[in-house]
Amino acid sequence: MSMLPESTPGPAISWAHRIITDHAEGRGCAECRARWCPTAEWALWVVVTDHLPPPGDDGKRLVTTVARQVLTNHWPYGVDGCRPCALPDCTRIQVATCWLQAVRDDYLPPAVQALRPTVVPTDEELRRITGLE
Ligand SMILES: [Zn+2]
Ligand SMILES: [Zn+2]
């Protein structure tokens, strides 16, 4: 994927909003990997750094859903750091945590509770992660 230059915040932010919505509602994108997505992480970074969630009553909830997904996918399982980046100091986690703190969401990934790196979320856990009833 290609990064849009920072000098074009208009197109970048509307693109980010579309990506956030697609991932929050489970459609994903062509860049989606098995457990994470670089495009969704880029979109979350744009939204958080610009402080611009998608418009409408649902906008913040959509961002929160994607932030929870990113936190779940990158949560460090050991001393080697998170799994997709293998970094002890993962910037994706920092961006996701920044948003969740801003909206006062005290979400903890199920992996932390399960303490099993290979655990696959059940449908019930996924509903809890996404906040959808
Ligand atoms: Zn994706
Ligand atoms: Zn990471």
Structure write-up:
The termini are far apart. The protein has one domain (9-130). It has helices at 9-24, 38-50, 59-74, 91-102, 110-114, 123-130. The protein is globular and about 40 Å long. It is 53% helix and 0% strand. The protein has six helices and no strands. Helix 2 (38-50) crosses helix 3 and helix 2 crosses helix 4. With 133 residues, it is mainly α. Bound molecules: zinc ion (ZN) (2 copies). One zinc ion (ZN) binds next to helix 2.
Summary of the model, kept short:
Helix content is 53%, strand content 0%.
What is the helix content? 40-55%
Content of β-strand: under 5%
Q: How many beta-strand segments? A: 0
Mean pLDDT metric: 81
Runs in which pLDDT lies below 50 for 5 or more consecutive residues are: 115-119
Straight-line distance between termini? 33 Å
Domain count: 1
Major β-sheet, in short?
A: none
What structural category do the secondary elements indicate? mainly alpha
Number of helices: 6
Bound molecules: zinc ion
Which H/E pattern describes the elements?
A: HHHHHH
Given the C-alpha coordinates, what overall shape results?
globular
Rg, Å, rounded: 14 Å
Helix-strand layout with pairing:
Elements: H1 9-24, H2 38-50, H3 59-74, H4 91-102, H5 110-114, H6 123-130
The structure holds zinc ion (2 copies).
Quickly list its features.
single chain; 133 residues; mainly alpha; 6 helices; 53% helix; 0% strand; binds zinc ion
